[in-house]
Automatic annotation (TrEMBL):
The chain crosses the membrane at residues 27-50, 62-87, 93-112, 119-138, 150-178. This is ECF transporter S component. Keywords: Membrane, Transmembrane, Transmembrane helix. Signal peptide: none annotated. It comes from Neobacillus paridis. The keyword Glycoprotein does not apply. The keyword Membrane applies.
Length: 187
């Protein structure tokens, strides 16, 4: 079945090869991915309207960097948050709990798990946790003003279902990007 297929053959060799590259090249790659992620996330503030369609793609640089190396993915995640503090501070409340957390958790899942379903569930769990933390603990209306800040089972279940589908899309897109970029980054 599709969800239980192993992805080990396409990711693990590139991760091993990436660990053999020079440390300078790995750090420069992390900085480049952080800059790209910060620019994509801040597009919502710089380009109202169209920028909100661009900002979800800030998951990709964090995801790709985390797929190669989890510690480097964490550095990229932290550096992106620091860059957002300078570029677009209003995005700093959303990125660490949603798009950035999804990229980091999916990348780590690609590093630690073999089956697609485990990877998708890991990403969905962290994305759901981040959205619910923003919504219920911080009381930030991340889902819009139509959704109440008081706990609702329907909202929680809907968020979990959305997070599963969204993590599935990003895991497939991340795998596609990883296969394309591994020749450039590892060489």
């Amino acid at each position: 079945m599709y969800f239980f297929k192993s992805i080990l053959e396409s990711v693990k060799p590139a991760q091993t090869d990436f660990q053999k590259t020079a440390k300078t090249k790995r750090l420069v790659s992390a900085a480049l991915f952080a800059a790209i992620a910060a620019l994509l996330q801040s597009a919502g503030g710089f380009l109202p309207g169209a920028g909100y369609l661009i900002s979800p793609f800030s998951t990709a640089p964090i995801l790709i960097c985390s797929m190669f190396s989890v510690p480097l993915g964490m550095i990229t995640y932290i550096l992106t948050n620091l860059l957002l503090l300078l570029l677009e501070p209003s995005e700093l409340i959303v990125f660490p709990f949603t798009t950035g957390l999804l990229g980091l958790s999916l990348g780590a899942a690609f590093y630690f798990f073999r089956k697609r379903i485990s990877i998708i569930l890991c990403g969905a769990f962290f994305l759901t946790s981040g959205i619910l933390t923003l919504l219920y603990a911080i009381k930030f209306p991340v889902l819009g003003s139509a959704v109440s800040n008081s706990f609702s089972f329907l909202t929680t279940a809907g968020t979990g279902l959305f997070a599963f589908v969204y993590a599935w899309i990003w895991s497939e897109f991340g795998l596609f990007l990883f296969k394309r970029l591994k020749r450039i980054i590892v060489s």
